[in-house]
């Protein structure tokens, strides 16, 4: 049985294990900002993808299907790059990622925070965002603990399906504890969202790579996408054309908070996080970060399980932490309003955070 007992299965052969007991002293990952060009250079020449159907809740709307990179394909990339070589004298983050792909634990505190899998609450966020019919263009958007980045991928899908604009820049910031997750899964999923959208149609019709066979732009089908230099250049060009800035950062929440304070980085208009309240000892750091990044009129949404079995966290613990003495003293207090709830099976909620003055 997995620790959470609720993951969306990406490979029927996965063997879920109980979480590794954390060491007495956990050295948290420091803040790191990952350059988009370097992330693109680290991609393999070909990625495999499969459809991810998502139910939308708004009446009259068709459900949506997004494409996501296959986990087995990420594993193959790591092995082909030599990260599975047991003779290596020094483990790397990619070597650690391969270990979780081979026998994925849902959580190893301070080492791996579950970002290689797609969890239900991220799909809940997509359904809820769709009901709001928000205009994302020109906004500053942050997804904390993004993992596979499905809510942000949905937002980018909407942007790529709209008209290109020369107006205000849309800034989408994706943060995850593990840099390898951003490299192996998050960015490939974003590229797939672009490839399956009208934004890529100009590239497909330009015959820029006459010797390369590309799959149909059909997110409902599985396939393989060649990541040629020309395609990656077209992706970057589309980001510019649509006025989209992507930022990727890794590390612990406290280190991101400290970075934002030191750089006086402005706040965000839309702040999203899902499946991040599972550990009670990390709630204060999460709440402090959510408070720091939320602008005066920001929408701050937290999607979570009512209870995370075997860990101790959940919606009640998070709501209580928002009004805890330490949080009040830090000036980060808030209240959680439930805007959506699922009561069948393992309960799930989406909370909107209202910060106190």
From TrEMBL:
Transmembrane helix as UniProt keyword: no
Q: Which Pfam families match?
A: Methyltransf_16
Which GO cellular component terms, listed alphabetically, does the Swiss-Prot or TrEMBL entry include?
A: cytoplasm; nucleus
Q: What is its EC number?
A: 2.1.1.85
Which GO terms of the molecular function aspect are on file? protein-L-histidine N-tele-methyltransferase activity
Q: Where in the cell is it found?
A: Cytoplasm; Nucleus
SUPFAM superfamilies tied to this protein: S-adenosyl-L-methionine-dependent methyltransferases (SSF53335)
Chain positions covered by the region annotation Disordered = 1-23, 204-225
GO biological process assignments: methylation
**Keywords from the named record:** Cytoplasm, Methyltransferase, Nucleus, S-adenosyl-L-methionine, Transferase
Tell me where it mainly resides.
cytoplasm
Q: Which family does it belong to?
A: Belongs to the methyltransferase superfamily. METTL18 family.
> Which PANTHER family does UniProt cross-reference here?
HEPATOCELLULAR CARCINOMA-ASSOCIATED ANTIGEN (PTHR14614), HISTIDINE PROTEIN METHYLTRANSFERASE 1 HOMOLOG (PTHR14614:SF39)
Protein name per the record: protein-histidine N-methyltransferase
């Amino acid at each position: 049985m997995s620790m959470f007992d609720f993951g969306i299965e990406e490979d029927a052969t996965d063997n879920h294990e109980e979480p590794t007991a954390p060491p007495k002293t956990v050295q948290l990952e420091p803040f790191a900002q990952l350059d988009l060009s370097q992330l693109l250079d680290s991609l393999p020449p070909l990625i495999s993808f499969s459809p991810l159907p998502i139910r939308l809740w708004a009446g009259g709307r068709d459900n949506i299907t997004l494409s996501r990179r296959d986990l087995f394909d990420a594993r193959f990339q790591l092995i082909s790059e030599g990260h599975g070589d047991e003779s290596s004298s020094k483990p790397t983050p990619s070597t650690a990622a391969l270990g979780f792909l081979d026998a994925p634990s849902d959580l190893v505190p301070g080492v791996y925070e579950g970002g290689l899998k797609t969890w239900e609450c991220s799909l809940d966020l997509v359904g809820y965002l769709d009901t709001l019919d928000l205009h994302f263009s020109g906004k500053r958007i942050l997804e904390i603990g993004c993992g596979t980045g499905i809510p942000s991928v949905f937002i980018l899908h909407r942007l790529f399906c709209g008209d290109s604009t020369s107006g205000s820049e849309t800034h989408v910031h994706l943060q995850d504890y593990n840099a390898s997750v951003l490299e192996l899964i998050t960015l490939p999923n974003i590229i797939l969202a672009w490839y399956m959208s009208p934004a890529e149609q100009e590239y497909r019709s330009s015959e820029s790579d006459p010797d390369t066979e590309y799959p149909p732009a059909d997110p409902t089908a599985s396939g393989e996408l060649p990541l040629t230099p020309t395609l990656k250049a077209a992706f970057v060009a589309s980001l510019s054309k649509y006025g989209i800035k992507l930022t990727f950062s890794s590390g612990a929440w406290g280190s991101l908070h400290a970075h934002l304070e030191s750089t006086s980085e402005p706040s965000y208009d839309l702040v999203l996080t899902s499946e991040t309240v599972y550990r009670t000892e990390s709630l204060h750091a999460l709440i402090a970060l959510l408070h720091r990044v939320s602008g005066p009129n920001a929408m701050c949404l937290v999607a979570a399980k009512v209870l995370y079995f075997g860990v101790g966290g959940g919606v009640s613990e998070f709501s209580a932490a928002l009004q805890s003495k330490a949080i009040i003293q830090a000036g980060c207090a808030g209240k959680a309003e439930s805007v959506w709830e699922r009561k069948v099976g393992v309960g799930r909620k989406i909370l909107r955070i209202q910060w106190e003055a």
